[in-house]
Amino acid sequence: MNHRNFIQMKTLKTISVNYMIYLICMVLVSSCVPDLELDRLDQQSVNAYYKTASDANAAAIGLYGLVRDMYRDETINVPNIVAADDGIPFLTGNADRVALWNYNITPTNTFIGGIWASAYTGIQRSNVVLNRVPPIAMDETLKNQYLGEALFLRALHYFNLVRFYGDVPIVLDEVTSLENVEVPRSSLEEVYQQIETDLTQAIAQLPSTYTGSDVGRATKGAATGLLAKVYLTRAGNDANSPYWEKAAQQAKAVIDMGIYDLWENYSQVFALENRGGKESVFEVEYVTDLTGNNFTTGYAPRGSAIVPGSGSGILRVSKDLFDTFEDQDSRKAVTFLTSYTNPSNGALVQLSVDNTDPALAVSFWKLADLTSTIGGAGGKSFPLLRYSDILLIYAEALNEANGGPTAAAYEAINKVRNRAKLKPLSGLDKAAFKTAVLAERRKEFCFEGNRWFDLARTGQLVEAVKNENSFGRNAVIQDFNTRFPIPQREMDVNSSLVQNEGY
Question: What are the distances in angstroms from CA 149 to CA 19, 143, 385, 400, 412?
Fold first, then answer.
């Protein structure tokens, strides 16, 4: 294995180890029972497995497989696109995508259930590692690293849960029986406190860098950067929140590590050869034609023969997003596919943000892997946290904490703008600078699972969704829609859960 696929399977030995982890995880979190319940366990087999340093390493590596699956296609990313204002689902496609788009959201929506189930499966797997690895006799530094990885990923799962659903159950122990599985929801404050605790401990235990096949695993910088984003989210829209200063401090800590930097050109960020490179603070890695993602075939214009099996065209770019890019913004050509040459006849096909034909729609394109020969198996990484995100978190937090932009805030945002070939900002008041940062985030990170979260945390979701009204959207969105409903399946099996307001 190399740094591009340390969580993937390239040799028979690796396949065997990961399959064993998969079987154990499937025993520990059965798909046949509620996500906080379990089937009877073969405890003797589980206990027999967690004995050696190799077992501990394999278990830690196995944690990343679920994250890979969550981000490879739709579980997290599609709601962040269509439930915001960046993308439009094709109206003849998946009805649950359309329901998210027009805010006809019910607890039975498959995306609502999928996010919850995936997150709690990941939490259970982290809890297994945190419970089973400590007794193993092995190098303590490596042990602490593996535990730090489990803490980091558990925090990531809880961060997704709390942002989508608000109050959620906190489960910190490995669940090994059906007793006491009806866990009630904990408060927002309690969930965030747990996330902060996990990340603080992970920061102390994780290494700053890796070498060889370990490159791509969670690092001290990843945990610090995620904590900065957690604090930014906790600050919300409160001008007096103490979390602005905390977010700035954590972002500055990542900057001061001197490990990360921006690539000179935006296209380099997503290049296959730069996976795990200097701008990546934490990413989900894939392998072309082996354990790939669906960002190429899934988002190519419907029926286009430029990708294996022809494009699925499940989403199209909103005009509202497309028009936010200035013509000189170098990110625009990288982010979108606006035309292509038909390989069958050499004709140039022009794409549009207005044409109702899904075969002629502008497509999200910066994560497309045109080296792939198998449909749904692209190899580009999904970036969960980039250095440009750290810079913009720093700029936004400094502006809020200081009652207006500081020289350091301008330096941070202008570094991102300079890479995009845009003029530097200057002379803005606090409100104008905040607006500029959020606009920059939208362009820099579109299609990277940030937009819905950014709109929700800043109190702008309802207005933004109502303003994006193309293709007859007319979304019936209300203030309570800044939280998704608790999945109906969970409500049915856990009598201690209370549904979110409005659902």
Answer: 20, 10, 16, 31, 29
- d(C-alpha 323, C-alpha 226), whole Å: 30
Tell me the pLDDT band of 98, cut-offs 50, 70 and 90: very high
User: What mean pLDDT is predicted for residues 246-266?
Assistant: 98
Model pLDDT for residues 302-347, shown as the tens digit of each residue: 999 999 989 999 999 999 999 999 999 999 999 999 999 999 999 9
Q: Hey, what are 133's tokens?
A: 């690895």
For the chain, give every domain's residue range.
286-380
**In angstroms, what CA-CA distances link 500 with 84, 169, 191, 496?**
19, 13, 16, 13
Give, to the nearest 10 degrees, the angle between helix 188-205 and helix 220-235. 160
pTM over 0.85: yes
**Tokens matching residue 135:** 């007794």
Q: Residues 149, 152, 157, CA angle at the centre, nearest 5°?
A: 125
Alpha carbons 28 and 42: distance in angstroms, whole number: 9
**Of 274, 266, 223, 216, whose CA–CA distance to 390 is shortest?**
223
